[in-house]
Request: fold
Amino acid sequence: MGSWGSTYPLAGSITSTDYVEAAAGVAARTIFLMGRTGLLWNTSEDGCYKELAPIWRKNRYKLQMVRPTRDHGCLPIGREGLLWTGGKHSPQKDNFSWMMFEKNDCCVRAMK
Reply:
């Protein structure tokens, strides 16, 4: 997961000292776990069908923080916390919510 730590152990703790970065690491582990349990599907290379994705490609996913503070940009999985975590954590609010964006390739044929 880049600078956010390791995906294994899935039930283990995140060793990051930054609270916001650790919460993002938990969200990334959830995406990884979805792939391992058969809940994650990617579009095929040509974009015409979906295929099971037991091994995630983290460049297809981005996260956006929606709680406790709303972030206006998406961040790729593993981006260094020093670049984006400043001012994102209120000491009174510890519940984080993340919106996941997935890159979708679509099958579009040109009409003649």
In short: The chain has one domain: 2-83. The two ends are 44 Å apart (CA to CA). Residues 42 and 62 are 14 Å apart (CA to CA).
